[in-house]
C-alpha cells in the first residue's frame, strides 16, 4: 500500500490585522482568547500554554519554518491552509502570501476555502452574552467573483510546492452545501486552470456529518473529508437531553458538552469512514471554551497514548481502501482557540508529535488496498 498523505489543517490567524483591531481591539489575535482561558471544572486542562514556539506571530517567517520542521518530525506531509474570501475581500491571507513570496521552506501545502459568515460569537466568549452580530458575511456574487477568487490564488496554484493528487491541484471547500446551486465555481476554475497552463483541480468537500457523505451534491467532488467531532457529543439529541444541557449551562454555569477523549475516539468512529470516497479526520483534542466559555464543547483528558490509538484506528480503515492515493487529515495543526493542535505545549511538550510519528512508522502497510 502507498503510505497516506497526512495533511494537517493550518490556521493562519496568529497575527493582528485591521478588521480584528476594529472588532475586538488593537492587537487582538487568537492568543488573546487562549491566554484568558480558565478552568471550568476540576481537572479541566486550561489554560493551554505554548512551549517551543511560544505565543508566536505569523508575520515572522522563522515561525513557519519552525512549524514545518515540527510537522516533518510528526510525519505530516502537507499543510492545508484555511483561506478566507468574502466576495472579493480577503482576510488572514498574509502568512500564506508571505510563504509563497519567500519560496521557502520546501514543504507541500494546499488550501481550504473556509466559506462561512463570521459573527461576533465565533471568536470571543464575552460575545456569547450579547446579541448576535454579523462581522463579515459570506457571499457568492457570481462569475466575476469566481474569477477574481481564482486569480487571487493563482500564485499559490503555480507554486511548485502546491500539493497535487493524481497530478491535480488539491482544493478543499469547507461548506459546499451553503453555496447556491448555480454557482459554477468548480467547472469555471478548471477552465481557468487550463487557460493558465495548470492541471485541473482535485476538489474535496468537507463535512462534519456522516449522514451527508452520500448526498448527491458531493458527486462533483473527488473526495469528501469527514470530521465526526459532533458524533462524539451525540447527534440528534432528545428533548430531555437538550433541556438537561440548558439547565447545566445556564443555571450551573458549566459547559454542557464534555466527553472524555477515551470515549470520544470510539464515538467518532463510524461506518462512513469506510466509504472509499471519504477521507477521515483525526482529532488530537478539542476544547473551544477559550472562544465560547461555558458554551464550548470539550474533549476531556486527551493524552498522546490515546491519540496513538485514535490514529491507529483510522489507519486501519484507510489501509483497506482501493484508492489512487490514501489520505488522512489532522484537525488541526495549530487551532489553539479550539484546544485542537499538535504543536508543543507546557504539559505534553512534543509528545503528540512523537506519538504521530511513532504510530505512522510502526504501522503495517503490507495489506495493499491501492489501485
From TrEMBL:
Look up the domain of life of the source.
Bacteria
Gene3D superfamilies named among the record's database cross-references: Glycosidases
Q: In its UniProt entry, what is this protein called?
A: Lipopolysaccharide biosynthesis protein
